[in-house]
Amino acid sequence: MKKLAMLTVKGAVGLVPMAVRNKLKSNHRLTEFYSRSLQRSGLFYGFPSEKKRMALYSAYLKQQAQYFQEMAFVDKNGHEIYVLIFGAKSLSLTLDSLNRLGVNHERICVVAENSGDESIRRASTISEAVDNLSESTRLLLLNSGDAISKVSFDVFLTCDSGADVVYCDTDKIDAKDRKVSPHFLPDWNPDLQLSTGYIFTGVMCNAALVKRSGVRSSTIAGIVSELWIKLPHSSVEHIPYTLIHRSPNKKITLEALADIRTVVKSFTSATPSYNEELAVNTIQWPVESEPLVSLIIPTKNGKALVKACIESILEKTVYQNYEILLIDNGSDEKESLDYFAKLEKHSKIRVLRYPGAFNYSAINNFGVQHACKTSSIIGLINNDIEVINPYWLTSMVGHAVRDDIGCVGAKLLYSDGRIQHAGVVLGYGGGAGHAHKYFPRYHPGYIKRLIATQNYSAVTAACLLVKKSLFVDVNGLNEQDLTVAFNDVDFCLRVKETGVRNVYCAEAELYHHESVSRGLDHAPEKAARFNRELEFLKQQWGEYIQHDPAYSPNLTLMRENFSIKSKEELSG
Question: How many domains does one find in the chain?
Fold first, then answer.
């Protein structure tokens, strides 16, 4: 009924004249309400209804069961697993599932003040729990209320990857005993862990790792975070299958996020805080010396766009140690040229001329070459960007100065408040696309990935910060093969290959009035150029397109909405 109603509304909207529709789109609240309603109805950007999602997940579970049925579970090393259960709520559910597997009670310990079951060993902390265990003992960390099957236990038992930490996907058991709400996770994503604690159960590690780190955290999410902070070179492996079934417990999430904040505060120089409205952690990394940032803005004409962009930077940005390099690519409109001449008189702004055909990569490389010698951070900014959050640059610089971080991207919105960019996923459409594109601004996204700062393989150059030294080390943007499209994706991946991580900074919000100045690539010559650049991306980065580590292999690549793969995709 809801779907039929929204189909009617959607059809009616299609009959409204374009001029009226554009005026309505300028009302952000109305647009967000419309988008949310479409999503709930199952029509929002192809996002399936709840009924369809359950059907898709059911199909996935059948395929997973078939895959495991064909596997031969052989533990070549004769390992045994020692199970640590955190908390005592719904403990019986977890113990019952372990009993069905024949796990000896001597190999189980409840990490809680009071387990309520005298037959099970109890410890107050994880350190106490592993104190008398051999360093070679493998630990399986579960939350009370979790259930695990024989097959899942065998997967952990026979896992012989050599990784220090191994984790899996999970789902929930609802009131009708149905498996719902799958958490299809990316590969190891440290910044997402600090923001959301996305790994909070179903974790296996060696007792030696716990002992060596002296871990003090009281939750699984906190333990994973603390292990990474203390031992950053530890290897972490993701098993992309649903192995743990959770009981609903909101308290676990809150405790995990609080535990992570304690870890960050205790072992880093960052300042963590909790966003109650979004229910995620915000981590502000220190910007002690306030390095000079060179913001490079290419343009051709476009006075109105450039004016809105630059004025928003000058008027709204709290971080003040920056310069603006406006790169004029052959402007010929008098009003634009007159405005650029006025800008040259501003102490923070330089206007540079770059003649010739439009080549986004070459123009930005030219800008970097002319950046102030004392600047240490490069900011690539499109001329149709407009600042929303005054602390955008503070947040982004905080990440950019981290030794282990490369490119830093922002949360970009269309003029009507919908998501334009929230990280780039390789594989969308056979190339690359934007995560959660067209979602409403305040939508949490899939497992909070729209509102949480995290690692992506790439981010858009429409608003991107990176150390100048890194930019130079990888020879900047590829101006020979990628003149317009995918140059930012290629650049980010080359930066990532140096051993650092790229970051989507959810706290940095800006408008991106995309394609207003350049237009879309419908002309035959533009389409041909786009296809050439797409083919270059496929040849150069085929491995990432096949499997983007920041995305789950169980999620669709047909749309940018984090939906579960269709039956056709699963069978393919």
Answer: 3
Domain contains 140: yes
pLDDT tens, position by position, 137-155: 999 999 999 999 999 999 9
CB atoms within 10 A of CB 529: 16
Residue 227 sits in the same domain as residue 349: no
CATH of residue 392: 3.90.550.60
Cα–Cα distance between 470 and 278 in angstroms, integer? 33
Contact assessment for residue 166 and residue 237, using Cβ atoms and an 8 Å cutoff: yes
245 and 366 belong to one structural domain: no
**305 φ/ψ angles, rounded to the nearest 5 degrees:** -65, -50
**Residue 572 in domain:** no
Q: Chain centroid to CA 218: how far?
A: 25
Cβ pair 228, 221 in contact under 8 A: no
Q: What are the structure tokens assigned to 219, written together?
A: 């939750």
Residues in CB range of 25: below 8 A, 6 or more apart = 31, 415, 416
517 and 372 within one domain: yes
- On the 0-12 / 13-18 / 19+ scale of CB atoms within 10 A, 29 is exposed
pLDDT value of residue 514: 73
| 263 neighbors 86 (Cβ within 8 angstroms) | no
Q: Residue 227 has what pLDDT?
A: 97
238 and 323, same domain (yes or no): no
pLDDT for the residue 362: 98
Note down the domain range covering 445: 293-567
| Stated length of the chain | 572
Q: Tell me how far apart the alpha carbons of residues 222 and 200 are, in angstroms, rounded to a whole number.
A: 8
Classify residue 90 by burial, with Cβ atoms within 10 Å: 0-12, 13-18, 19+. Answer: middle
Residues sharing a CB contact under 8 Å with residue 326, sequence separation 6 or more, in sequence order: 297, 299, 306, 310, 340, 343, 349, 350, 351, 352
pTM of the model: 0.92
Of 181, 184, 179, whose CA–CA distance to 168 is shortest? 184
Is 52 within the bounds of a domain? no
Q: How far apart are CA 337 and CA 22, in angstroms?
A: 29
Q: What is residue 564's DSSP assignment?
A: B
74 and 23 within one domain? no
Q: Are residues 328 and 432 in the same domain?
A: yes
Tens-digit pLDDT profile for residues 31-64: 556 655 555 544 556 778 888 999 999 999 999 9
What CATH number is associated with residue 113?
Answer: 3.90.550.10
Which residue carries 């499997």 as its tokens?
Answer: 547
CA 474 to chain centroid, in Å, comes to 23
- The partner residues of 527 in beta bridges, in order of sequence, read none
Tell me the backbone φ, ψ of residue 215, rounded to 5 degrees: -60, 140
**53 part of a folded domain:** no
Give the SS3 label for residue 529: helix
Clarify whether residues 356 and 435 are in a common domain: yes
Mind listing the pLDDT tens digit for each residue in 362-394?
Answer: 999 999 999 999 999 999 999 999 999 999 999
Shared domain check, 424 and 362: yes
